[in-house]
TrEMBL record:
Keyword tags: Membrane, Signal, Transmembrane, Transmembrane helix
PROSITE patterns assigned to the protein according to its UniProt record, in alphabetical order: EF_HAND_1 (PS00018)
Ranges that cross the membrane: 190-210, 217-236, 242-259, 271-293, 299-325
Pfam entry (one): HupE_UreJ_2
InterPro entries to which the protein is assigned, alphabetical: EF_Hand_1_Ca_BS, Put_HupE_UreJ
Protein name (Swiss-Prot/TrEMBL): HupE/UreJ family protein
Signal sequence, start to end: 1-18
Keyword Zinc: no
Organism: Gemmatimonas groenlandica
């Protein structure tokens, strides 16, 4: 395909999915991937702060003159840090073009732009059914630490948010694959989350009896499921700097109630556990924020992640109860007091 035809195709892909933002052809920190046959047309707006070796005047911006001067080096730099794959097929990079994004009516734009638009075309052996992206083209400031990508394939659209902690994503995954992936994440999160493990243990050892255990565990499960869903769906968002100390406080509270034998009535204890569970659900949501829900299977990924948490929690409870029962079984039986019978002389 000629360069002219490539540019036309890329322009069609870009104008189909991108809305203008001032003079930006693509909103900052965003991009589109459009699958057409065996080819993928991409348009991404990346921060210039992620690039090196171009800032001749030291103003932290990329001017058209600087881009013209360093275009080949910047293309090579970006190309090596932006991978599109289809399973094991890395495809062939047919085209990559850069342009500076300038903002209208912004005096600072006279010194250059803070973002560069990347147009790319990549062709694979077969039509991409397992399209994946991997990149570390994130900026130096907090607002530049993520990249929102929208992928389109026929009538299917999927959004993904890439971050430094989660720099890759596979699009158009099957529901079964999404469920398996997110349930494993849920299991991993609770088993490696010391705070959640400690809280579960504090409510388990507080009292004995299946009625007590089922009540408090159900209360905790329902509570954290509610706030996990609200947090992951962006209905409720509270900073981790607030949530994490409150989670630690909930552990201290339950420990204090255990050793002081306060709030021992089951309804009261269940209500306290429910309130604490709401905090832990927000903690789960905060931990998942960097990964996010699967764009085309939000309900499946949310349900699977929560199911994974419950499976991990069940494993913790099983181990704790086995330890309790084993301790009781091996507890030495009390020895009756030894008394001497009076012996008549």
């Amino acid at each position: 395909m000629s360069a002219r035809r490539m540019l036309v195709a890329l322009s069609v892909a870009l104008t189909t999915f991108a809305a203008p933002l001032h003079a930006h052809l693509m909103p900052a920190q965003s991009g589109t991937l459009n699958v057409r046959g065996r080819a993928v047309f991409g348009a991404l707006s990346i921060p210039v702060s992620t690039l090196t070796g171009f800032d001749d005047d030291g103003n932290g911006r990329l001017s058209p003159i600087e881009l013209q001067r360093h275009d080949a080096a910047l293309q090579q730099q970006i190309s090596s840090r932006l991978q599109l794959t289809n399973g094991t097929d890395r495809g062939s990079r047919d085209f990559l073009q850069l342009s500076v994004e300038l903002v209208e009516n912004d005096p600072a734009s006279a010194g250059g732009g803070t973002h560069v638009l990347v147009l790319v075309k990549q062709t694979f052996i077969a039509a991409p059914a397992q399209l994946a992206i991997h990149t570390d083209l994130f900026g130096s400031t907090g607002s530049e630490q993520q990249l929102a990508i929208k992928a389109m394939h026929d009538s299917t659209a999927e959004m993904a948010v890439l971050r430094a902690s989660h720099p890759n994503h596979q699009f158009f995954q099957s529901p079964a694959h999404v469920a398996t992936q997110y349930s494993a994440l849920g299991i991993e999160h609770i088993l490696t989350g010391v705070d959640h493990v400690l809280f579960v243990l504090t409510i388990i050892v507080a009292a004995a009896g299946w009625r007590y255990w089922l009540t408090v565990l159900t209360s905790f499960t329902v509570a954290h499921s509610i706030t996990l869903a609200l947090g992951m769906l962006n209905v409720v968002r509270i900073s981790p700097s607030i949530v994490e100390p409150l989670i630690l406080a909930s552990i201290v509270l339950m420990f204090a109630l255990n050793i002081t034998h306060k709030a021992t009535k089951l309804p009261v204890r269940a209500a306290i556990v429910f309130a604490c569970g709401l905090l832990h659900g927000l903690g789960f949501a905060s931990a998942m924020a960097d990964i996010g829900l699967s764009g085309s299977s939000k309900l499946i990924s949310l349900t699977a992640f929560n199911a994974g948490i419950e499976l991990g929690q069940a494993a913790i409870v099983a181990v704790a109860l086995l330890a309790i029962f084993a301790a009781k079984a091996h507890r030495p039986k009390p020895v009756p007091p030894f008394t001497l019978s009076a012996v008549d002389s």
